[in-house]
Inverse folding.
């Protein structure tokens, strides 16, 4: 089984109860090729996964799962601040075992033992985090398609 | 780590009783949330056909949930489909 250490960035705009929020995440995930079935497992944030018949399908499923988690949090939050706190908690719940495999996979990428030509590379030490902002003045400049890169 | 096949939510609940006593399953709009030991797994699917009684869930998701809670060794013994 091959593991690929990913860095992913996404920006989601969503409605909550009485607010509109923008969530921008720079996170880590682990892509695994398991005999033709591809799985993407959240590292930071942990607590979610996606799968598919190809890496792109698995990434799309993971992205949909990430959005669905935000929707579930928004559905239960009765204020923007409650939503923000729960999203921060979600991001901070790193998966320890997945992180250990992610770090080993980074080592293999740096050693040239794992390659993924279909992914751009970024430094594994890139800044991680999640920002939750209340949207009061929407602007097209805030739109972002998001991306996944190979941590190297 | 093979990840094919389905297990029922009832089987998952039994595995959690064995390996993560006190774990709570909460059904949300889009996912099941599992709370245990101060952590929450927020991405367990509702099931192949959405929320319903005792839905079937992909083994791969259950394995990753068990890894997240660091109970995979126990989970494999309790739920043979995870092996």
């Amino acid at each position: 089984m091959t593991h690929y250490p990913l860095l992913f960035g996404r920006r989601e705009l969503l409605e909550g109860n009485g607010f509109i929020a923008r969530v921008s995440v720079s996170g880590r995930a682990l892509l695994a090729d398991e005999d033709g079935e591809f799985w993407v497992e959240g590292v930071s944030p942990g607590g979610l996964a996606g799968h598919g018949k190809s890496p792109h399908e698995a990434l799309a499923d993971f992205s949909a799962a990430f959005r669905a988690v935000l929707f579930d949090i928004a559905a239960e939050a009765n204020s923007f601040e409650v939503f923000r706190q729960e999203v921060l908690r979600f991001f901070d719940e790193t998966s320890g075992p997945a992180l250990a495999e992610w770090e080993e996979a980074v080592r293999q990428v740096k050693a040239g033992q794992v390659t993924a030509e279909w992914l751009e590379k970024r430094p594994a030490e890139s800044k991680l985090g999640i920002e939750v902002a209340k949207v009061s003045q929407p602007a097209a400049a805030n739109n972002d398609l998001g991306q996944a890169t190979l941590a190297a | 780590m093979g990840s094919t096949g389905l297990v029922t939510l009832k089987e998952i609940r039994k595995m959690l009783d064995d390996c993560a006593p006190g774990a709570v399953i909460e059904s949300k709009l889009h996912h099941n949330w599992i709370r245990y030991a101060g952590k929450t797994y927020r991405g367990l699917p509702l099931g192949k056909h959405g929320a319903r009684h005792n839905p079937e869930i992909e083994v791969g998701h259950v394995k990753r949930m068990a890894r997240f809670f660091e109970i995979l060794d126990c989970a494999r013994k309790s739920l043979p489909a995870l092996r």
Observations:
- The longest helix of chain B spans residues 9-19.
- The mean pLDDT of chain B is 91.
- Chain B has three helices and five strands.
- Chain B touches chain A at residues 1-4, 28-31, 33, 39-43, 58, 60-61, 64, 67-68, 70, 72 (CB under 8 Å).
